[in-house]
Amino acid sequence: QRVSGAALSVRGVVKNFGGVRALDDVSLEVKPGSIHAIVGPNGSGKTTLLNMISGFYPSDAGSMKLGDSELAGRSATAVARQGVQRTFQTPKLLPGLSVLENTRFGGYARERASGAEIALGLPRATRESAALDAQAMHLLSVVGMEKRAGEEAALLPHGQQRLVEIARAMLGEPRLLLLDEPAAGLSLGELEEFGALLKEMRRLGMTIVMVEHHIELVADLADAVTVLDQGKVLAEGTPEEVFRSAAVVSAYTGA
Ligand code: ADP
C-alpha cells in the first residue's frame, strides 16, 4: 500500500444515476491543512462528489481514504464519526431552535449523548453542556455570529445560516471540512469576512474541500483546484495554473 500523506485521497470514484454517469473515474489528493477547491460548470458532478465523500450516496467504484481509513461503503453517520463534517448548498438548520442550539448539534459527532439531547440540554448531556455552550459561543464568535446566538437560526438570511452551519461543523472538530458553495448569496462585505475566516481556519490547521462558483474567492484562497467537467477531472493544479488552461476556459464558456 502506497502512503500518500494526503488528508483525503480519492481514487477512481464512479457514480451512476440510472443512465447518467455523474462521476467517471475521479481522483484527487487533498493535502493536510490546505484549502482545496472543486470547480466546474453546472452538472459537472461537484455536489455528487461531496455527497460521495460524506457518505450521503454510496459510490459504484473507487476508494476515498481519510488518512489511512477507507470512507467508501460507510454511512453518512459513520463518515461524520471519522471526522468529516459538511455544510449544504441550502443550509439545513433545525427550525424552531436558536443559533446556539443549532450550533450545539455539532457536538454530536464527538459526544455520546445524542444531538437532540445536546441541543436541548437534556440530563445525560448536562455535564457536557456547559463546556459545549462555551465552545459553541466561541465558534459563533469566530464566524461573527455570536450576537445572534439567541435568534431563531432558520429565520436568518441564507448567508448567515451558512456561517452557523460552519460553526456547527467546526464544533465537531473535523479532520476534514466539506463546504458546498459557502459563498453563495454573500454580500461583498460578507465575502471579504468569509475569506478571512477560511484563511484563519487553514491557519489553525483545518483541511477544507469546497465547491465554489466564486472564481475570485477560489483564486484568492485555494491552495489547489480540481476542475470537473461532465463527471471527469478536466484539470488540476494551483488556481493560476487551472484558470489559465484553455480547456478550462472553454468548458466554462462553451467556446
Ligand atoms: P454540480 O454540483 O457540478 O452542478 P451535480 O453533482 O449536482 O453537478 O450533478 C451531476 C450530474 O448528476 C447531473 O447530470 C445531475 O443531473 C446528476 N444527478 C445528481 N444528483 C442526482 C440524483 N440524486 N439523481 C439523478 N441524477 C442526479
TrEMBL record:
The chain positions of domain ABC transporter read: 8-255
Subcellular location per UniProt equals: Cell membrane
Its signal peptide is none
Put simply, this protein is called: Branched-chain amino acid ABC transporter ATP-binding protein/permease
Q: What is the lineage of its organism?
A: Bacteria, Pseudomonadati, Pseudomonadota, Betaproteobacteria, Burkholderiales
- Residues of the whole record sequence present: 347 to 601 of 603
